[in-house]
Amino acid sequence: MSGRLAGRRALVTSADRYLGPAVVDLFGKEGAEVIADTSDYTKGPDVPRKVVEKAGQIDILVPIFAGPLRIMPFTNMLGPVTEAKDEDLQAYLNELVWPMVRFVRAVLPQMYQRRSGKIVAVTSASPMRAIEGLAIYTGCRGYQNAFLMVAGAEAAHHNVQINGIGPAFIENPSYFTPQMLGDPNIRKSLTDVIPAERICDTWEAAELVLSLATDAGNFLAGQIIPISGGWATH
Q: Is the per-residue pLDDT at 1 higher than 70?
């Protein structure tokens, strides 16, 4: 099969949530052998390691973690920091932070040994600009971004590239349900803060993941590239 990822094996986590379906679909079309994992990564600290071991050789890791379903969609995530609950912070740590660390830690040894590999994480642009009401979520996304920055610098010594994309306002049911986006007032409240004046399609974000997973990302290390229609830098 031809394509930009022909002959490469890619492991995509949370393949059924957030940007997972779009990435799985695009990578498959580009010739990759895609392992679409849908494990529950909160079931124990060994889950990521076991997923990696079962997968075997991994040329590309795309770690995607959307957060606790009970705190979603976006409207359920909002709340002042004075009302932040310990259990919510712990839930975000369990579903965003720890799986990221564990998957990267589990896959790097084989990539280091081959001196080849790509890790393209899907995190968030939220740490780049304050959103009132999202302190706990943003803090955990910020940890992910900082972790990837340092891990990316370390991995560069081994010819392994670790980078990520920071989405904001992506049209997906994990954060924005069809009912929310079908409400003109809610949609307008979102697009009013985006210079591009629209919400991003998942395929656009998946294309950025793809680019970083190819040789186009060979000279990038520890970068988190926002995809936000200008919101992150506005």
A: no
CA distances from 167 to 43, 74, 206 (A): 27, 14, 10
Angle 47-55/98-114 helices, nearest 10 degrees? 30
Rounded Cα–Cα distance for residues 218 and 213 (Å): 9
Q: What is the pTM of this model?
A: 0.96
Q: Give the separation between CA 82 and CA 185, rounded to whole angstroms.
A: 28
Domain spanning 9-233, CATH architecture: 3-Layer(aba) Sandwich (3.40)
- Token pair for residue 219? 């000279």
Contact 199, 168 (CB under 8 A): no
Per-residue pLDDT tens over the stretch 22-63: 999 999 999 999 999 999 999 999 999 999 999 999 999 999
